[in-house]
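wait is this the right file?? whatever heres the structure
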């Protein structure tokens, strides 16, 4: 039986090894690459990321990967952004000045909100395990990245900025922090992003990676 192949985009500032190992644990062939031809030929693409939005976008531009990623996504290739990689899918970010993103899902990235009155203050960066909740009553996780996900299953987050999609229908799941709903998973057709680190979230996270490969 042929192994499912996933291309993990390497642009020099992301935690590639743990993502690669996560996919290999579920039986995928994980190719780490910054080669445009390999990205053009990919059947599944993953855009990981840690650090600052501005630095990440500059790295993608320096390697001439921006157009290749956008082209693949527009051609229907399943694309998963992880942590900062999810934020890069949006139009722009306020982090260290206004920076244009990939523009694959309308929206922007903003500073983490303050805790609401009556709630404890929020530590930034927010490093914690959080349970996901549907973004609204009409959201169905079936046949999505969160297929078979249970509401009490926690996932590992570490971030200082939050994604704010323009269209609420592009938000698949949130989590609650300081009384605020924080975007956790976004999706628009074949383009998906998760703010948490599935590769660092144990069996629950590995199931989410498995779900991505089945999309």
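ok assuming it is, sequence goes like this
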């Amino acid at each position: 039986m042929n192994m499912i192949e996933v291309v993990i985009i390497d642009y020099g500032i992301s935690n590639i090894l743990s993502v690669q190992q996560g996919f290999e644990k579920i039986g995928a062939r994980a190719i780490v690459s910054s080669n445009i031809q390999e990205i053009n030929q990919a059947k599944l693409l993953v855009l990981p990321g840690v650090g600052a939005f501005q630095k990440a976008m500059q790295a993608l531009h320096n390697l001439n990967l921006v157009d290749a990623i956008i082209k693949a996504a527009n051609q229907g290739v399943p694309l998963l952004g992880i942590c900062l990689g999810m934020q890069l899918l949006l139009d722009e970010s306020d982090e260290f000045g206004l920076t244009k993103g990939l523009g694959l899902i309308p929206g922007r990235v903003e500073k983490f909100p303050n805790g609401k009155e009556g709630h404890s203050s929020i530590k930034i960066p927010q490093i914690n395990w959080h349970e996901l909740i549907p973004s609204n009553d009409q959201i169905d996780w079936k046949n999505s990245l969160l297929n078979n996900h249970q509401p009490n299953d926690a996932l590992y987050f570490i971030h200082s900025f939050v994604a704010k999609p323009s269209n609420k229908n592009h938000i698949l799941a949130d989590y609650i922090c300081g009384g605020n709903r924080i975007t956790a998973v976004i999706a628009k057709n074949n383009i998906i992003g998760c703010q948490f680190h599935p590769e660092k979230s144990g069996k629950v996270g590995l199931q989410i990676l498995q779900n991505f490969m089945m999309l």
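The domain at 5-214 is CATH 3.40.50.880 (Rossmann fold). so i think its the right one actually
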